[in-house]
Amino acid sequence: MARSDTRYREAYNRILSFCDTLPVEATIPSETRLAEIAGVSRTIIRRCLSRLQDLGLISWEGRDKRLLRKPQDEDRIALPDAGPGKSDLEQRFLDWILRFDVPANTPLSVAELSRTFEVPQHDLKEFLAGLSRFGLVSRRPQGGWMLLGFTKDYAIELSDFRSLLEANAVSQVAEAPVDHPVWQGLSRLRQDHLALKAAIETDFHEFSKLDERFHQTINSVVRNRFIAEFQKVISLIFHYHYMWDKTEEKIRNEAAIDEHLAIIDALEARDADAARAATQRHLRTSKTTLLSSLRLHDLG
Amino acid sequence: MARSDTRYREAYNRILSFCDTLPVEATIPSETRLAEIAGVSRTIIRRCLSRLQDLGLISWEGRDKRLLRKPQDEDRIALPDAGPGKSDLEQRFLDWILRFDVPANTPLSVAELSRTFEVPQHDLKEFLAGLSRFGLVSRRPQGGWMLLGFTKDYAIELSDFRSLLEANAVSQVAEAPVDHPVWQGLSRLRQDHLALKAAIETDFHEFSKLDERFHQTINSVVRNRFIAEFQKVISLIFHYHYMWDKTEEKIRNEAAIDEHLAIIDALEARDADAARAATQRHLRTSKTTLLSSLRLHDLG
DNA sequence: CATGCTGCATTTAATTATTTAATACATAAA
DNA sequence: TTTATGTATTAAATAATTAAATGCAGCATG
């Protein structure tokens, strides 16, 4: 019943590696220096030094510390295996919601989720608290959490918000200097779109990836932490929804390719108004697709 | 070392009040019914019933429960005093940052904050996790949290984002139907602006409230949960920053009144383009003011 | 026989306790 | 004077613990 000592263990091995770079009999730097090297506090360093002394790796008297012998592989201490970690929890969580088609207003059990995602309950709660800012989840009066989205209203508001951000991005692309990397990206995207259009009969399912790349390229011009944060969620949601909605996928994708090309045309002509108009057309289609995919789920 | 029984205590008093509405000798509803009435689980209801029985308020055998006497005030159980609660934690936290001018890159101690705000550490962590979505705080590698904003970059990006949202709101106002409450609000705002302009020499500090009301009215037209969430933070930050920056306050406010009136004029003329242009002008001024107020803090 | 209530058992959530780690401060050595 | 160490204090992460919620089986009642 306490926090893990992973931090100590990692630091110990790091210090061991550092000692390996020193010759035998060498003086070992001060605790403060070692703390800097390992990126931890002195408290941990002192635990490490105690162990090094116990194992006879160093002598330690007052401020005189000497390396007695070269560290061996067996001197290292084992680390608890890392697991998937909470770094990509967001991806995995949204993936889970969408893949298993978790309906709106489902109670979420932190205990259960922490098992399925193999992260401590604590991290999960923190994550859910973050998501609640996007209105995807909320706390229940009787405790625990509740999945709110994806209702029709949520999808509409998300689409509208996306349109706003994307229109802004397109405007900024149109005003980007000629040496901005976005132009190279768009030129490559044009080729890839044309290539896919030629092979649409067989490769139409490849469009999903291309779509994500397209919107990412456009939005890469916008340097704004708030917008970037939202784009992560938006792109995930749209991306996954498209992946399932298999109705008329080929026709839809073929149309979307043309819509993308129209935007690229307008941008390369530096015609901001035309680009914005083309973007609005494209996003209206997206919105319709998203909504119809929801309707399918409601019926099934 | 466990969760509090506040839920039980509140439920007990609620059940007591319910019993007060019944005549003596009356049959008490089923556990499930009582659970619905009190808004808690059956587990709590059974604890309540046990206590009611112990105190001789009810008889309880199998499913036959009878009220033996009218509940008195002394039958109620004490509640741990509520404290400020975590409902307005956001307001209080932002207020604290801005009022005490907490600089960027300050480590935040959950333990300390939980004391100053009188909320459990747990609630605070949840709150901070939410704020991290706005890029205001982030986790530190060595544990704990760190206040990131308000740097210059943060202010710029926030201003830009605000402009985007506000331009959108203005566009929607211009297209709002004649019977929409926003028109009445704007008409009142016009009068109040004119009144303040007339009394600007003495009442110029009153503008802050008017400013908040103006932007709230404009944004009230937008029905979007994502935008609404951001507006809360944005308005707080701008509002407070203006409150301190006392340099040339009168002149600034006088100018802002004219800018607001220009927007109202354009909107009431249903001239969306002019309204957007006026809004951009106004927000450019806002941005400059926000940035200069930051510069003042850096120097002081 | 169906419906709904209760008793019991299991699971989950909130919160404290505990251990690890970070930090602050005093003291001693260089 | 500067820098390192020793010691004490405080904070953070996490498991343990209790409160509460939920699920299910059996029983009473109409």
List the helices and strands and how they pair.
The structure is a homodimer of 300-residue chains.
Chain A lengths: L5 H15 L10 H8 L3 H13 L3 E4 L2 E4 L21 H11 L6 E3 L1 H8 L3 H11 L5 E3 L5 E3 L4 H23 L6 H18 L1 H4 L3 H13 L5 H20 L4 H20 L3 H28 L1
Antiparallel strand pairs in A: 1-2, 3-5, 4-5
The first copy, chain A, binds a DNA duplex (30 and 30 nucleotides) through helix 3 and helix 5.
How would you portray this structure in words?
Chain A has 300 residues and is mainly α. The first copy, chain A, folds into three domains: 6-75, Winged helix-like DNA-binding domain superfamily/Winged helix DNA-binding domain (Arc Repressor Mutant, subunit A), CATH 1.10.10; 89-147, Winged helix-like DNA-binding domain superfamily/Winged helix DNA-binding domain (Arc Repressor Mutant, subunit A, Orthogonal Bundle); 152-299, Four Helix Bundle (Hemerythrin (Met), subunit A), CATH 1.20.120.530. Helices cover 64% and strands 6% of the residues of chain A. In chain A, the strands form two sheets. A three-stranded antiparallel beta sheet of chain A has the order 3-5-4. Chain A has a two-stranded antiparallel ribbon with strand order 1-2. The two termini of chain A are 46 Å apart. The A-B interface holds A 39-41, 125-127, 129-130, 132-135, 141-142, 154, 157-158, 160-161, 164-165, 168, 223-227, 229-230 and B 39-41, 125-127, 129-130, 132-135, 141-142, 154, 157-158, 160-161, 164-165, 168, 223-227, 229-230. The structure holds a DNA duplex (30 and 30 nucleotides).
Average pLDDT number of chain A: 89
Task: Provide the CATH architecture of the largest domain in chain A.
Answer: Up-down Bundle
For the record, the count of structural domains of chain A works out to 3
> Please, how many helices of chain A?
13
